Amino acid sequence: MELDLARWQFAVTTVYHFLFVPVTIGLSAFVAGFHTAYLKNRNPQHLRMAKFLGKLFTINFALGLVTGIVQEFQFGMNWSDYSRFVGDIFGAPLAIEALLAFFLESTFLGLWIFGWGRIPEKLHVACIWIVHIGTLMSAYFILAANSFMQHPVGYRINPTTGRAELTDFVAVLTNKVQMVTFPHTAFAAYLTGAAVVLGASMWQLHRRKVEDDMPMYRTAARVGAIALIIAGAGVAISGDQQGKVMTEVQPMKMAAAEALYETQDSAPFSIVTISSLDGKQEKVAITVPKLLSFLGTGDFDGTIHGINDLERQYEAKYNADPLTRAATYTPTLPLTYWSFRLMIGLGMASVGVGLLSLWILRGGRTHARARWWPLLSVAVALGPVLGNAFGWIFTETGRQPWLIFGVFTTKSGVSPGVSAGEVLTSLIVFTTLYAVLAVIEIGLTIRYARAGAEPIKEQAATSEDDAPLQFAY
Amino acid sequence: MELTTVWFILITVLWTGYFCLEGFDFGVGMLFPILGRTEDRRRVLLNTIGPVWDGNEVWLITAAGATFAAFPHWYATLFSGFYLPLLLILVALIVRALGFEYRHKRNDPTWRRGWDAMIVFGSVTPAFVWGVAFVNMVHGLPINADMEFTGSVISLLNPLALLGGLTTVTLFLLHGSLFIALKTDGEIRSDARALAGKVGFAAAGLTGVLLLLLGTDRGDSASWITAAVAVGALAGALAMNGRGHEGWAFIGTFLAIALLVITWFLMLFPDVMPSSTNAAWSLTAENAASSHKTLTIMTWVGALFTPIVVLYQGFTYWTFRKRIATHHIPPAHDERDYAPTAAS
């Protein structure tokens, strides 16, 4: 019971946290880009876009930040045995993330937000770039910690203490899973940021509130669309590499992604399946022949291991040790199967919208009158956000029953001294609080996205020392 | 020096940084209803900490992360043992941060009043709960042979710990009002100074009694000295405030809070979480620590980057060093009509 609740809490808080993180990473790059463009060409439209996107960015950053603290505390609160077992390795990237990245992000974001008119312009632009670099470093270190859970390297089990101990920190930071996960996640974040830029601009193009602003939004939409397509290519290429590494180090996850029961050469890739995924009855499925083998191994005739074979192998290998014994080594199939498809589908669909909008905005056109246009602008902004969420649901549930693949099961990691009632309390508190905050955040985002870029305010003619602040809470 | 001792000192530094820095922004948040009688005054208060509160809070995140890395057992026992108090702190920090960020995003009095309440709740709650938690930790907790906390939330609410909570709340109130006195101008500045004078006596008294009670139990010569200097620094701060030396007064409370935290950690060492069930089951800097290798790597990272962090955070404080008064506050952001207008 306590295990289930702790897992639910982790799932709810992580998925929620990760709704904001990619938006933050991606948008900060666009804010920095527009602010830099203004520095170079003094086009006030670029400054307006930087400020407009900056508002959407800070609304999301705030929620990403506060929900991140919950994540850090949660390891100790709900997973204390995991923390004891793996703190030697897992704690280091987490602490380094805080020391190197969080300080940078929060301090320089404060400088950027409040720095208008107070710090030299070039330094001001540098601040937002530093924020962006901070978000990327943060992603790197937390993903290194996660990659260790997917594919443990650079450690040994100390027989006296019974804990995992670090033997090679460079190996942890250059884990082969990390080498494909970080680019994949980073490209997905740029894709998400680009989609938000595109979506917000498309909406403005449709509304035509201020006719003179249309060229500005058209430029922004095109920048967003082009970045979306480039990032989409990056996501696809890194995702393909990730699939190959996953097939190698976590074959069960690949088998679960496909609901592939029997080991197969030249395995087909299934696009959708109707009827059950339990492998007992004939599936009605749309499949592409040999594609799965190619995705998993780089060879159209490669062998993909099936769930039944792997389950037997794992039972023989892991059942003897209490830390690695599990009732089943197969993850929940409908979850892995569908989250994998939704991740890919939503990512590809948003790239499709990027291409479509480029075509519609070709040759100086500024908008489409079509009724579905505003709907599409919301969909393109939300699609990648949900795609990211499904990506993480797939990655984390596909790892089950393991916390650390092949080393430590999830049920071994839960806090022994914490009662189910306590976990239930916090689960209810966080779920309720997060739901309320979601309503507030979505309301604010829509409000500011609708409002569009503010006109440039006339500054007081003299730079009087006692003048009002250019930005204040 | 043993690496475990080095890391014990570094964890002390991180918590000291956290309480000294976030201490004053907790204070500012708590003083919202007292010093922020009008909307302009509330916005002055907010803007004194606007650019820095977020960076201050990262000291907590780093302290927790560093404890995880350097002393995994300490992190595990502390965070699972203080489950519900930490839940309360997390909720408080979440609504407080969003209060700062979202309050000004709508020009609507009901909206702002709601976030104001969140800021006050979010500031007073952690200020109190951290005091309760630290005094419990220093005094000793029921911990079994498996390093697991065996008490309940009720057992955490003992009189000494409650005194600890009250002490941190009043100390942060004093610290916050001196920060406001230092960072503002006009009426609000003199109000803050007068308030600091009143709160100061309570803070000094409570700190003195708390350290005396804790000291009779766990004090040694070093911790008695730091405790005495802490109370001395508070007295100095009050004297300086009385004479209108706001900067010196603020340095005084900064020092007093730092010394309070240092005293706590001196009382702990070489334990990190003493067991009140059986002294042999206490978590110590030695038995709670990570491997030598991890500590070595972390020492390099910490030694290289902590000074850099201090430098650029210092730069932020220097950048925003100007005093703020009500006439510096620009009109509300949201004065434009945000109501949807028909498309063309």
What is the N-to-C order of secondary-structure elements of chain B (H for helix, E for strand)? Answer: HHHHHHHHHHHHEEH
Per DSSP E runs of 2 or more residues, the count of β-strands of chain B stands at: 2
Number of helices of chain A: 14
Question: On the 0-100 scale, what is the average pLDDT of chain B?
Answer: 91
Number of strands of chain A: 8
CA-based gyration radius of chain B: 21 Å
User: Unreliable segments of chain A (pLDDT under 50, ≥5 consecutive)?
Assistant: none
Largest inter-chain contact set: A-B, 84 and 80 residues
How does the overall form of chain A come out from the CA principal axes? globular
Tally of contiguous helical segments of chain B: 13
Shape of chain B: globular
Major sheet summary line of chain B = 2 strands, antiparallel
Mean of the pLDDT scores of chain A?
Answer: 90
Q: In whole angstroms, how far apart are the ends of chain B?
A: 73 Å
Structure description:
- The complex is a heterodimer of chains A (473) and B (344).
- Chain A has 473 residues and is mainly α.
- Chain A has a domain at 15-254 and 333-397 and 427-451.
- Chain A has 14 helices and eight strands.
- Chain A has helices at 2-41, 44-78, 80-114, 121-150, 169-173, 176-207, 214-249, 251-258, 291-297, 307-318, 333-360, 372-397, 410-413, 420-451, and strands at 155-158, 163-166, 264-265, 269-274, 284-288, 303-304, 402-404, 408-409.
- In chain A, the strands form four sheets. Chain A has a two-stranded antiparallel sheet with strand order 1-2. A two-stranded antiparallel ribbon of chain A has the order 3-6. Chain A has a two-stranded antiparallel sheet with strand order 4-5.
- In chain A, α1 runs antiparallel to α4 (121-150).
- Chain A starts with a helix and ends in a 22-residue tail after the last helix.
- Chain B has one domain (3-323).
- Helices cover 74% and strands 1% of the residues of chain B.
- Chain B has 13 helices and two strands.
- In chain B, α1 (3-30) runs parallel beside α13, α4 packs across α5 and α9 runs antiparallel to α12.
- Chain B starts with a helix and ends in a 25-residue tail after the last helix.
- The interface between A and B is large, with 84 and 80 residues.
